[in-house]
Each structure stands twice: as structure tokens, then as C-alpha cells.
């Protein structure tokens, strides 16, 4: 007799929602636990590369994706301390056909598709507190505290709860961490018609920070500042008027004026503590980690959402056969194979991120400052694009083929 196993997925981000949908459409009982009551966040990755778009289409959700408003970043402008030194087709930078899509709307679209299957359950506002272990195996999770505490149990728990995953912290799995030299301040301001156009992303390299901006589908500019890691508290200690002006000063006039008009948004920026690394193993008996829970990605190259979606496809390929009639041994073996198949792409993508980070955020010494100042001119001459052409292609299309088979 065939026995269908049950799965708990912790975290309703791209990896968790995509895997939940793929399992539920095969009739597997899936409960997705999301700590928040909605998908809205101050900042979530919005860049869908060709690899991520392909993953969604393989899931059969291309029509739903196409109905979500988006902006396509077709041009990139590079500035050096407020002076434009380059305007180029985004395709030359490996950014062809990148869609800037609201991640909350994308997650709602996947949730809507998954909700059509009776075996899918999305429970919001349920923060997981701890993993439940019995006889050396993870058998479920505990949510809530005190008298409100209760349990969810399943044959497999999948941790997809992001960069600060409770599942990763409690798994006991060893992590390889790659130290990062920068953090990012993210915020949104209303779009201004003074901006070059609605299909241009811009980067401004200053002496102490890098400024970023790109239009979004909700008529705003997503903007940010890349700063040296660990310096935000020192900046903030100078008072909002002073530290925000230090960052704004030197930007192109059209952006600086808009940020000054909306200084409160700048002062209220969300700090993204940039981390990057990967677990050596992604599973223990009864538990599999995927997405940023298994391998927190740097924001360089906009890889996070796309890698997470590809993780979900590979996880479904291995887990579905085991969950449709397999025992605990088969499920655990399938979980190990997910890590084995995904490992080459994760290692390669993170190495490329580290390489590009060293180029863009050089060490604060004379050699680093020289490289830093040369980057805009190397780009204008096409040298940087030529040197990194393979990396740009792989970060857009994916390092290895990923095909959904279930």
C-alpha cells in the first residue's frame, strides 16, 4: 500500500513557497509556517534573473508571473562622485531581461496557486521556536511560548526560513562562513521624473560609500547605500541630518534632491547585515535546509531569489518519490541528494559574489583606493565587462542546468 508522508516547511519565502506548491500538487500533505502575518517587508530581493524566471515557468506559473507588474532594467548608468561616466545596455553587464518584481506579490501568486490543492496549508503568524527531536530524529517543530506553545509534527521538516534561520541555528550543522566587508542601507522614496527613465538602474561610486537606485513597479525608487561593515552605528551617532547628508552628498543632482526631499525615508533605512556562507551538510535525520537557511547569499548580483527557486525545483525532484511511499531512510537519503546536486552552483555563485565584491568594495588601502577609482573607467572602456563576461552570463542564466522532473 502506498503511504504519502507529510512535510512541514518553516518559512514562506521563495524557497519555502515554491517547494510547498510543488509538493502539494503531487498530493503530499504540506504545512508552511510563516512567522509574519503577511509577506510585506521593508526590503526583499526583487531581481528575477533569467534563471529564476525559467524556474517559475517550469513550475507552470508563468502566466501568474506575467500578470504581476514589473520593471525591466534595460540600462545601467555608472557615476563617479556624481558625474556620469557610463551608460550601457544592461545585457553587457549580464543583466539581460532582469525583471524587478515585488516579492510579496510573487509569493502571494505562488500561495494562490498552491491553495488550489487541498493538501497545502499556509499558516501565518506562527514563529517557530524550536525543533523537536526524538530518538535522534527531527520529528516536528514547536511554536509559541508558555501556555500558547503547541507542536506541528511531520515526516520531514524543511527549513526555508532565511538568512537568520532558527532551523539552521538549531540544526547543529557546521557552516563555512565568508567574511564580508560591507553592509547595505535600503529604503524607498517616490519616483521622480528627474530620474533618467523607468528602465535604468544606477550606481554611484563615492569615496566612502556606493549609492544605488532603480525604479520599482509601484512608482517608487528602491535606493540604498553600501557602507563599510560595522560602521552604521558610528554614522547614526552623528545625528540623522548629518549622517544622511554625508551619504547623499556627491550623488547625481537628480537623486540627491529627491533623497533630501524624503530625508526621513533615508534616516529610517533598514540595515542589511550582509552575510555569506554555506552549510557543509544541509540535512540531519528528519530535517533538510534550503535557500538562505542553507547558504545565505550576498546581495551581489541579485542571486538570492533565483537560487532559492532553483533549490526548490531540485528538492522537489528528490523528495517527491521518497515522500510518495518511501520510509524515513529513503526520505533522509533524498534530502542528502539535494545538497549534493546543488553544491556546485552554490559554491560557484558565492565565489563569483566574493570576486565582484572585492572589485567593487576594495580594501581601504592605497591599492584598493586606486582600483576603486579605476572601476568606472574600466567599465567605460569595456574592460570590466570583458574580464567578467563569463561570470555575468552564469549569474544570469545559472551555473548548472536545473530541470523540474516531478
Query: Which residues form runs of ≥5 with pLDDT under 50?
Result: none
Q: Can you give the mean pLDDT? A: 90
Q: How many helix segments?
A: 14
What general form does the structure show?
A: globular
Q: Beta fraction of the residues?
A: 25-35%
Q: How would you classify the quaternary structure?
A: single chain
Helix content: 25-40%
Beta strands, count: 21
Radius of gyration: 22 Å
In whole angstroms, the N-to-C terminal distance is: 21 Å
Characterize the biggest β-sheet.
Answer: 7 strands, mixed
Structural class determined from secondary elements: alpha+beta
Strand arrangement in the largest pleated sheet: 6-5-15-16-17-14-18
What does this structure look like?
The structure is a single chain. The protein is α+β, with helices and mostly antiparallel strands and 406 residues long. It has 14 helices and 21 strands. The protein has helices at 14-24, 50-58, 62-66, 103-114, 166-171, 232-236, 240-248, 253-261, 263-267, 304-323, 328-360, 366-380, 383-387, 389-397, and strands spanning 6-10, 29-34, 47-48, 70-72, 75-80, 83-89, 99-101, 120-124, 128-134, 137-143, 150-153, 156-159, 175-177, 182-190, 200-205, 210-215, 220-228, 270-272, 277-279, 283-284, 287-289. The chain has a 7-stranded mixed β-sheet. Strand 1 (6-10), helix 1 and strand 2 form a beta-alpha-beta unit. Helix 1 (14-24) runs parallel beside helix 4, helix 1 (14-24) packs parallel to helix 10 (304-323) and helix 10 runs antiparallel to helix 11 (328-360). The two termini are 21 Å apart. The model has no long low-confidence stretch (mean pLDDT 90).
Amino acid at each position: 500500500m502506498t503511504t504519502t508522508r507529510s512535510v512541514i516547511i518553516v518559512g514562506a519565502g521563495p524557497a519555502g513557497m515554491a517547494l510547498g506548491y510543488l509538493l502539494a500538487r503531487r498530493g503530499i500533505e504540506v504545512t508552511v509556517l510563516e512567522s509574519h502575518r503577511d509577506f510585506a517587508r521593508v526590503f526583499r530581493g526583487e531581481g528575477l534573473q533569467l534563471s529564476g524566471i525559467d524556474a517559475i515557468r517550469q513550475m507552470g506559473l508563468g502566466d501568474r508571473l506575467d500578470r504581476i507588474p514589473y520593471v525591466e532594467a534595460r540600462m545601467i548608468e555608472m557615476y563617479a562622485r556624481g558625474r556620469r561616466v557610463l551608460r550601457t545596455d544592461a545585457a553587457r553587464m549580464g543583466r539581460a531581461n532582469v525583471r524587478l518584481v515585488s516579492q510579496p506579490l510573487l509569493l502571494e501568486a505562488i500561495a494562490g496557486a498552491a491553495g488550489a490543492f487541498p493538501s497545502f496549508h499556509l499558516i501565518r503568524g506562527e514563529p517557530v521556536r524550536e525543533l523537536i527531536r526524538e530518538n535522534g530524529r527531527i520529528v516536528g517543530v514547536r511554536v509559541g511560548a508558555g501556555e500558547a506553545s503547541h507542536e506541528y509534527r511531520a515526516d520531514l521538516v524543511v527549513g526555508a526560513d532565511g538568512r537568520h534561520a532558527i532551523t539552521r541555528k538549531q540544526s547543529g550543522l557546521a557552516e563555512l562562513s565568508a567574511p564580508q566587508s560591507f553592509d547595505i542601507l535600503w529604503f524607498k522614496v517616490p519616483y521622480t521624473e528627474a530620474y533618467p527613465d523607468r528602465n535604468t538602474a544606477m550606481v554611484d561610486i563615492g569615496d566612502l560609500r556606493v549609492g544605488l537606485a532603480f525604479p520599482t513597479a509601484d512608482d517608487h525608487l528602491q535606493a540604498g547605500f553600501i557602507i563599510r561593515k560595522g560602521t552604521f552605528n558610528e554614522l547614526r551617532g552623528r545625528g540623522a541630518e548629518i549622517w544622511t547628508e554625508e551619504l547623499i552628498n556627491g550623488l547625481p543632482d537628480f537623486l540627491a534632491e529627491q533623497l533630501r526631499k524624503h530625508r526621513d525615508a533615508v534616516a529610517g533605512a533598514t540595515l542589511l547585515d550582509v552575510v555569506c556562507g554555506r552549510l557543509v551538510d544541509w540535512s540531519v535525520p528528519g530535517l533538510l535546509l534550503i535557500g538562505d537557511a542553507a547558504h545565505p547569499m550576498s546581495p551581489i548580483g541579485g542571486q538570492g531569489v533565483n537560487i532559492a527557486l532553483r533549490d526548490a525545483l531540485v528538492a522537489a525532484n528528490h523528495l517527491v518519490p521518497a515522500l510518495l511511499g518511501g520510509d524515513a531512510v529513503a526520505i533522509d537519503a533524498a534530502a542528502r541528494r539535494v545538497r549534493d546536486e546543488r553544491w556546485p552552483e552554490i559554491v560557484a555563485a558565492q565565489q563569483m559574489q566574493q570576486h565582484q565584491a572585492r572589485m567593487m568594495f576594495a580594501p581601504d588601502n592605497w591599492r584598493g583606493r586606486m582600483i576603486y577609482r579605476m572601476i568606472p573607467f574600466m567599465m567605460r572602456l569595456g574592460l570590466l565587462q570583458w574580464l567578467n563576461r563569463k561570470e555575468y552570463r552564469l549569474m544570469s542564466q545559472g551555473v548548472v542546468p536545473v530541470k523540474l522532473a516531478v
